[in-house]
Design brief:
Blueprint: H1 11-21, H2 28-47, H3 56-70, H4 79-86, H5 90-103, H6 109-122, E1 124-125, E2 132-135, H7 139-152, E3 160-161, E4 168-171, H8 173-182
Antiparallel strand pairs: 1-2, 2-4, 3-4
Protein backbone atom coordinates (compact mmCIF):
# COMPACT_ATOMS: atom_id res chain seq x y z
CA UNK A 1 0.00 0.00 0.00
CA UNK A 2 1.33 3.40 -0.96
CA UNK A 3 0.64 6.08 1.67
CA UNK A 4 1.66 9.68 1.08
CA UNK A 5 1.77 12.48 3.61
CA UNK A 6 2.33 16.19 3.06
CA UNK A 7 3.96 18.23 5.80
CA UNK A 8 4.45 21.97 5.60
CA UNK A 9 7.72 23.07 7.15
CA UNK A 10 8.82 26.62 7.87
CA UNK A 11 12.20 27.87 6.69
CA UNK A 12 13.65 27.70 10.24
CA UNK A 13 12.39 24.10 10.60
CA UNK A 14 14.01 23.14 7.29
CA UNK A 15 17.27 24.80 8.37
CA UNK A 16 17.20 23.02 11.73
CA UNK A 17 16.48 19.66 10.12
CA UNK A 18 19.23 19.97 7.53
CA UNK A 19 21.70 20.91 10.27
CA UNK A 20 20.68 18.09 12.63
CA UNK A 21 20.41 15.44 9.90
CA UNK A 22 23.55 16.76 8.16
CA UNK A 23 21.99 16.85 4.71
CA UNK A 24 21.15 19.33 1.99
CA UNK A 25 17.69 20.84 1.47
CA UNK A 26 17.48 18.85 -1.75
CA UNK A 27 18.04 15.54 0.13
CA UNK A 28 15.77 16.41 3.06
CA UNK A 29 12.49 15.02 1.62
CA UNK A 30 14.07 11.60 0.99
CA UNK A 31 15.65 11.49 4.42
CA UNK A 32 12.45 12.59 6.18
CA UNK A 33 10.60 9.87 4.24
CA UNK A 34 12.85 7.27 5.90
CA UNK A 35 12.01 8.66 9.34
CA UNK A 36 8.33 8.87 8.42
CA UNK A 37 8.37 5.21 7.38
CA UNK A 38 9.78 4.22 10.78
CA UNK A 39 7.25 6.44 12.57
CA UNK A 40 4.36 5.05 10.53
CA UNK A 41 5.47 1.51 11.36
CA UNK A 42 5.49 2.45 15.04
CA UNK A 43 1.93 3.81 14.86
CA UNK A 44 0.63 0.89 12.78
CA UNK A 45 2.11 -1.64 15.22
CA UNK A 46 0.49 0.25 18.12
CA UNK A 47 -2.92 0.58 16.44
CA UNK A 48 -3.17 -3.10 15.48
CA UNK A 49 -1.96 -4.16 18.92
CA UNK A 50 1.38 -5.69 17.94
CA UNK A 51 3.38 -3.26 20.07
CA UNK A 52 1.52 -1.60 22.90
CA UNK A 53 3.89 0.01 25.38
CA UNK A 54 3.17 1.45 28.82
CA UNK A 55 6.61 2.88 29.57
CA UNK A 56 8.20 5.76 27.72
CA UNK A 57 11.57 3.98 27.60
CA UNK A 58 9.98 1.05 25.75
CA UNK A 59 8.60 3.45 23.14
CA UNK A 60 12.01 5.11 22.68
CA UNK A 61 13.73 1.73 22.37
CA UNK A 62 11.26 0.53 19.76
CA UNK A 63 11.52 3.85 17.91
CA UNK A 64 15.31 3.53 17.72
CA UNK A 65 15.00 -0.10 16.64
CA UNK A 66 12.74 0.97 13.75
CA UNK A 67 15.12 3.79 12.83
CA UNK A 68 17.98 1.31 12.60
CA UNK A 69 15.94 -0.72 10.14
CA UNK A 70 14.56 2.17 8.08
CA UNK A 71 16.92 5.14 8.44
CA UNK A 72 20.38 3.84 9.34
CA UNK A 73 20.59 1.18 6.65
CA UNK A 74 20.58 -1.59 9.25
CA UNK A 75 23.64 -0.25 11.08
CA UNK A 76 23.92 0.73 14.74
CA UNK A 77 24.19 4.54 15.09
CA UNK A 78 26.69 6.14 17.44
CA UNK A 79 25.75 7.99 20.61
CA UNK A 80 26.15 11.43 19.00
CA UNK A 81 23.63 10.61 16.28
CA UNK A 82 21.13 9.27 18.82
CA UNK A 83 21.66 12.33 21.04
CA UNK A 84 20.94 14.64 18.11
CA UNK A 85 17.73 12.81 17.23
CA UNK A 86 16.35 12.07 20.70
CA UNK A 87 17.57 15.23 22.45
CA UNK A 88 19.39 13.14 25.05
CA UNK A 89 22.77 13.30 26.73
CA UNK A 90 25.58 11.05 25.52
CA UNK A 91 25.11 8.89 28.63
CA UNK A 92 21.36 8.56 28.03
CA UNK A 93 21.98 7.73 24.36
CA UNK A 94 24.59 5.11 25.27
CA UNK A 95 22.08 3.54 27.66
CA UNK A 96 19.33 3.58 25.03
CA UNK A 97 21.56 1.89 22.48
CA UNK A 98 22.72 -0.67 25.05
CA UNK A 99 19.08 -1.43 25.87
CA UNK A 100 18.09 -2.08 22.27
CA UNK A 101 21.21 -4.16 21.64
CA UNK A 102 20.06 -6.39 24.45
CA UNK A 103 16.28 -6.30 23.98
CA UNK A 104 16.36 -6.70 20.19
CA UNK A 105 19.60 -8.69 19.96
CA UNK A 106 18.18 -11.38 17.67
CA UNK A 107 16.34 -8.99 15.37
CA UNK A 108 19.43 -6.74 15.24
CA UNK A 109 21.93 -9.57 14.73
CA UNK A 110 22.69 -8.56 11.13
CA UNK A 111 22.86 -4.84 12.03
CA UNK A 112 25.31 -5.57 14.86
CA UNK A 113 27.46 -7.83 12.69
CA UNK A 114 27.56 -5.32 9.82
CA UNK A 115 28.40 -2.46 12.19
CA UNK A 116 31.27 -4.47 13.69
CA UNK A 117 32.42 -5.56 10.25
CA UNK A 118 32.58 -1.90 9.15
CA UNK A 119 34.73 -1.11 12.19
CA UNK A 120 37.13 -3.98 11.52
CA UNK A 121 37.38 -3.11 7.83
CA UNK A 122 38.19 0.52 8.62
CA UNK A 123 41.01 -0.40 11.03
CA UNK A 124 44.47 0.44 9.75
CA UNK A 125 47.95 -0.81 10.50
CA UNK A 126 51.10 1.27 10.04
CA UNK A 127 53.39 -1.72 9.54
CA UNK A 128 52.98 -5.48 9.24
CA UNK A 129 53.40 -6.31 12.94
CA UNK A 130 51.92 -3.10 14.36
CA UNK A 131 48.63 -2.82 16.21
CA UNK A 132 45.55 -1.83 14.26
CA UNK A 133 43.93 1.52 15.06
CA UNK A 134 40.38 2.59 14.36
CA UNK A 135 38.07 5.44 15.35
CA UNK A 136 34.96 4.12 17.09
CA UNK A 137 32.38 6.65 18.27
CA UNK A 138 30.25 4.12 20.10
CA UNK A 139 31.29 2.54 23.38
CA UNK A 140 28.53 -0.02 22.87
CA UNK A 141 30.20 -1.29 19.70
CA UNK A 142 33.55 -1.48 21.49
CA UNK A 143 31.81 -3.56 24.16
CA UNK A 144 30.30 -5.79 21.44
CA UNK A 145 33.76 -6.36 19.93
CA UNK A 146 35.17 -7.26 23.35
CA UNK A 147 32.27 -9.62 24.07
CA UNK A 148 32.92 -11.29 20.74
CA UNK A 149 36.60 -11.69 21.64
CA UNK A 150 35.67 -13.21 24.99
CA UNK A 151 33.48 -15.79 23.24
CA UNK A 152 36.22 -16.64 20.74
CA UNK A 153 39.06 -16.96 23.25
CA UNK A 154 39.17 -15.38 26.69
CA UNK A 155 42.95 -14.97 26.39
CA UNK A 156 42.78 -12.54 23.46
CA UNK A 157 43.67 -8.89 24.15
CA UNK A 158 40.75 -6.46 24.47
CA UNK A 159 40.00 -3.66 22.04
CA UNK A 160 41.25 -0.73 24.09
CA UNK A 161 41.27 3.04 23.88
CA UNK A 162 44.48 4.53 22.51
CA UNK A 163 46.17 6.49 25.25
CA UNK A 164 45.54 10.23 24.98
CA UNK A 165 42.78 9.95 22.36
CA UNK A 166 39.06 10.60 22.50
CA UNK A 167 37.76 7.80 20.31
CA UNK A 168 40.70 6.00 18.70
CA UNK A 169 40.98 2.37 19.70
CA UNK A 170 43.76 -0.19 19.40
CA UNK A 171 43.23 -3.76 18.24
CA UNK A 172 46.10 -6.19 18.67
CA UNK A 173 46.87 -8.24 15.52
CA UNK A 174 45.85 -11.53 17.19
CA UNK A 175 42.46 -10.08 18.15
CA UNK A 176 42.02 -8.43 14.75
CA UNK A 177 42.64 -11.73 12.95
CA UNK A 178 40.07 -13.57 15.09
CA UNK A 179 37.46 -10.81 14.76
CA UNK A 180 37.94 -10.61 10.99
CA UNK A 181 37.56 -14.38 10.71
CA UNK A 182 34.37 -14.41 12.77
CA UNK A 183 32.46 -11.56 11.11
CA UNK A 184 30.37 -12.24 7.98
CA UNK A 185 32.11 -12.31 4.62
CA UNK A 186 30.95 -10.30 1.60
CA UNK A 187 28.88 -12.30 -0.83
Amino acid sequence: MNIQVNINLSAPEVNNLTAILQCSQKDLPNIITLYATAASREYIDMIIGQKVFKRGSDILEYRLFLMIEEVFNNLIPDENKVSNLFQTTATESRSLIRSILSKYQYKLKVAIEMSLKNIIESATQESTDADYTVVINSQNLVDELNQMLAKIDGNLPLVSKQRGSVSTFVIKPSSYKKLKGTLPKDK
